[in-house]
Amino acid sequence: MKRVLLMLLTLLAACAPQNANGLSVTLAPGRYSVGRRDVLLEVQRDGKPFETQDLNIEGNMTHAGMGTVSGSAAALGGGRYRVKNFDFNMSGDWILTVSATENGKTLTGEVKLGVAQ
Amino acid sequence: MTASPQPSSRWDVLRVPLVGAFLRWRYSRFALQLPLLLIAALCVYDGLTGRQLAPRNTATVAVWVHYRGLVALALAVAGNLFCAACPLMLTRGPTKLLKRFVPQLEFPKVLRNKYGVLGLTLLFLFSYEYFDLWASPWLTAWLILAYFAAALLTDALFPVGTFCKYVCPLGNFNFALSVASPTQISAIDQTVCQSCEGKYCLNGRVETATTRAPLHGFKSTHVLLELPMVSTMVNVSATRGAFPGCETDLFVPAIQSNTDCTLCLNCVRACPYDNVALTVRSPLTEATTLRPRADWAWFITVLAWAGLVNAFAMIPPFFAVAAWLSDLLGTRDEALLLLVIQGTGIGVGALLTWVAARGKLRDWVGVLFPLTLAVWGGHYLFHFVTGYNTLLPNAFSALERLGLPVTALALPGVVRGDGIFWIQAVISYAALVAAGWVAYRKAARGGRDARAVLLELLPMLLLIVFFNTLTLLIFSQPMQARGSLLQ
Ligand code: SF4
Ligand code: SF4
Ligand SMILES: [Cu+2]
Question: Which residues pair with A112 in a beta bridge?
Fold first, then answer.
């Protein structure tokens, strides 16, 4: 019975609410390790570079119980942004969420990255 | 029936002012369950509709940080408080209703042991890693709902208490760790029990102005044989009403172990002679005296090693092993790799234990009690210490979405938790000493000479040191949380 339940759960997982809303984020290739690091991001909206002067970035780990790290990104033009000294203070999987407002609407996007020891 | 050591002179929690009065109060359990039910409801709401990021959702934080941390803490310092407050038991009302419409079945005899729940526990531990339950608010919410449904269905079809005793992995996890808890239900005076006509603690009691009788007749024949009458006319001063007995079929004067005791305190309320105590005992009492049934001995053994494997899955070497295994087997099938790692860890551990016990697992399993509590407790402590302050901000934002007038709280920054290694080390070493002592007590049984004791003791000591070394090695590594087994 539990097996059936789990199969159901996996099916249901497909319809879990989505976090990203409007933005897609890609990360400049590179390895990240614990410490304060600069992060280079590329943000797109509907396949086109997304430009804003006010992009917020928030880092969470994938495990519950971990706090949050936030920062802000400086626009480099062409939908590219640099986050300076982002505090990856623990190794493991991180999710960076970027958000910006456009016409009073909050747009968000996510990207996952691994932080090595 | 063997008499448990006379506890009347011992400290009885039920007789502590205020605490005792609260625990004896008829609705004390409900008073504990209600807040947990509300929290569970909030978890389901937030898990299904809230932000799908584990650290930012009430479901994942409450279940994987607070619930687990507090369960372990309560078991170590008090007892099986979670089962006592378990909101799943609030399905009792709907269960009763459902029972009128569904067939009443006997729980199959072949399933009346802990092997079934052992299988479910392993399945849960696999799913926990495979589906990254700890990372998914959505799945965590469904897990909560599935639990409620399973409890409701099981106890509607089968006698109430079946779910707790034979199905619930959480409850049995609690039972297994509570063997090292410092409290236990026991009879105050065995002679009162011998002359007790209704064995109400087991059978329940229904009381009117002039009669007193077991609630649903007598449950088992061994009790019946001792009884001349089924119902007696008595002058009662005790409260009137119906008081259910032990749902997991424990008989207070015979209790030697916390196994299967949900601390529901039904027995306390059902006993008309006020003869039930919640005695404070040494956490090692059971480890030295209990000789559990084989199924239970295996359950605890598996749980001990599963505790190591579960903690191992959070440190970098786990991913290194997964990568190495992936090359070796030439597969990137995560389910398979996970099965091999978990299966090997738990299987080899259980086998080693069996070998160290020279096949007499039931005699020696007590040695694992403190070690099991330490490995699970130490791991959960890590999550609790690093994340205890992340629940309120998440709960508040969920409540805010529900339209409640609460002010948002900022989520605190990431805490690495390296600083708690020394606490984990203290816990592990305390468990090492405790396990060694238990092993010594077992080896020294029957007045053997020193050489014989040492020979008897040695394999178990090696196992204890091995287990403790692994525990410390794991705790000393930086904890990580990674969803993908392979890079
Ligand atoms: S604990 Fe109370 S109800 Fe149970 S056998 Fe003893 S006297 Fe009877
Ligand atoms: S009724 Fe049974 S489960 Fe409840 S507290 Fe008493 S012995 Fe434990
Ligand atoms: Cu963990």
Answer: A95
Residues A64, B136: C-beta atoms closer than 8 Å: no
Maximum separation of any 2 CA atoms in chain A, in Å? 55
Alpha helices in B179-265 (DSSP H): 190-195, 200-203, 221-225
Please tell me the distance from the alpha carbon of residue B462 to that of residue B467, in angstroms, as a whole number.
9
Q: Can you read off the two tokens belonging to residue B252?
A: 């207070």
pLDDT tens figures, B75-102 = 999 999 999 999 998 988 899 899 999 9
SS3 B183: strand
Q: Which residues of A touch B484 (CB under 8 A)?
A: 93
Query: Measured between alpha carbons, how far is residue B267 from residues B19, B120, B186, B198, B261 in Å?
Result: 17, 29, 10, 12, 10
Task: Give Cα separations from B335 to B2, B313, B338 (angstroms).
Answer: 47, 14, 5
Chain A within 8 Å of B172 (Cβ-Cβ)? no
Reported as a pLDDT band with limits 50, 70 and 90, residue A17 is: confident
Higher local confidence (pLDDT), B213 or B390? B390
Q: Which residues pair with B280 in a beta bridge?
A: B183
Number of Cβ within a 10 Å radius of residue A103:
5
> Rounded to 5 degrees, what are φ and ψ at B426?
-60, -45
Q: Are strands B211-214 and A48-49 parallel, antiparallel or unpaired?
A: unpaired
- Residue B257 to residue B251: CA distance in whole angstroms: 11
CA distance B69 to B82: 11
Class of domain A21-116: mainly beta
Ranking A16-20, B153-157, B238-242, B285-289 by mean pLDDT, the lowest is: B238-242
B249 alpha carbon – ligand 2 mean position (Å): 8
Composition of chain B by helix, strand, coil, percent to 5: 65, 5, 30
Q: How far is it, in rounded angstroms, from Cα B141 to Cα B59? A: 6
Cβ neighbours of residue B15 closer than 8 Å, sequence gap 6 or more: B277
B138, A3: Cβ pair inside 8 Å?
Answer: no
Please state, in angstroms and rounded to a whole number, the distance separating the CA atoms of residues A66 and A78: 33
Question: What residue type is assigned to position B131 of the chain?
Answer: F
Model ipTM value: 0.83
Tell me, in angstroms, the distance from the centre of ligand 2 to residue B201's CA: 8
Residue B183 backbone phi and psi in degrees, to 5: -135, 160
- CB-based contacts of B165, cutoff 8 Å, min separation 6: B171, B248, B249, B260
Extents of the domains making up chain A: 21-116
- Write out pLDDT tens, residues B356-398: 999 999 999 999 999 999 999 999 999 898 888 889 999 999 9
Distance CA A71, CA B226 (A): 74
Closest approach atom of ligand 1 to CA B205: 3
Contact B297, B170 (CB under 8 A): no
Give the one of A2, A12, A64 whose C-beta lies nearest to B61's C-beta.
Answer: A64
Spatial neighbors of B265 by CB under 8 A, at least 6 apart, are: B23, B24, B28, B29, B84, B278
Q: Which ligand is nearest to the CA of B72?
A: 3
Give the distance, in angstroms, between the CA of residue B54 and the centroid of all CA atoms in the same chain: 24
Answer whether B261's CB lies under 8 Å from B250's CB.
yes
Inter-chain CB proximity A2 and B120 less than 8 Å = yes
